[in-house]
Specification:
It is a single chain. With 246 residues, this protein is an alpha+beta fold. Among the domains are: 93 residues, no CATH class; 70 residues, no CATH class. The protein is 34% helix and 19% strand. It has a 3-stranded antiparallel β-sheet with strand order 3-6-7. It has a 3-stranded mixed β-sheet with strand order 8-9-10, with no helix packed on it. β4 and β5 form a beta hairpin. The termini are far apart. The relative contact order is 0.10.
Length: 246
């Protein structure tokens, strides 16, 4: 993913490979597209995706962003809502003064490297040239204000409801240990477990065999794993029973 190549998510969704943009344009007043040509865009793209890790990429992007104080405020700005705060002054009269505090305290300037020089561009061009999302840049800007270095945390936040793969293997082995009867009535093979079994009973027998997993494997997880990984039914079909008895 760091190299911009396509991949498949854990949900099976296919993500296409990233492609270097052609004829980058924008509608801002700075006319950023006139400051760079296709050769510069290609060089930036190739360098960015040659970096080995996401941390290196984020550090590189961070070096091209500058945080400055807001110089002029526009009343129509959606993300810059003023809030009135009452401050008490410790003077003789103990007067109160109302102070207006704005939600947005910084603005960011984005640069790209053009033949060794930093050229300011709008955010849209900055995103297109590097092939990154606005959310990724928002996070990097937040780190810039906190004076922190980027850290790749993907895959390191384990869900509290997750079940280790070794436990899933134990469930799989347990279900596979039961005898299965295969019928071919109707042309399509069907697999049946003993009619006296249910998923609930199998779950209880699993916990009897592995009592230490009582708080790890809940019935809902066991049931879901059974349904998603085994195409088993319980008991034999009535048609087959009729044929056997006949």
């Amino acid at each position: 993913r760091t190299k911009g190549k396509g991949y498949v998510t854990y949900k099976g969704k296919k993500i296409e490979s990233k492609v270097c943009p052609q004829n980058v344009t924008c509608k801002c007043s700075m006319k950023c597209h006139s400051k760079i040509d296709q050769e510069v865009v290609t060089d930036i793209w190739n360098y960015f995706y040659s970096l080995e890790t996401k941390n290196c990429q984020d550090t590189y992007l961070k070096s091209l962003i500058e945080a400055t104080a807001v110089g002029r405020r526009i009343k129509s700005a959606k993300n810059d809502v003023p809030v009135t705060v009452d401050n008490e002054l410790e003077d003789e009269d103990e007067n109160e003064r109302s102070e207006t505090v704005y939600k947005r305290k910084h603005t960011f300037v984005y640069y790209i490297k053009n033949k060794g020089c930093l050229v300011p561009v709008c955010k849209n061009v900055f995103l297109k040239v590097h092939g990154v999302t606005g959310e990724r840049i928002r996070r990097i800007c937040s780190l810039l204000l906190q004076n922190k270095s980027p850290r790749d945390l993907r895959g390191k936040n384990r869900s509290g409801n997750s079940v280790p793969g070794t436990v899933c293997n134990l469930i799989h082995q347990h279900v596979s240990s039961y005898d299965v009867k295969v019928t071919h009535y109707g042309g399509k093979p069907k697999k049946y477990l003993d009619a006296r079994l249910t998923v609930k009973k199998m779950y209880e027998m699993f916990l009897d065999k592995h009592p230490g997993l009582t708080n790890v494997v809940k019935y809902n997880f066991y049931y879901t794993y059974f349904k998603e990984n085994f195409d088993y039914r319980f008991g034999r079909s009535q048609v087959e029973n009729w044929e056997t008895n006949y």
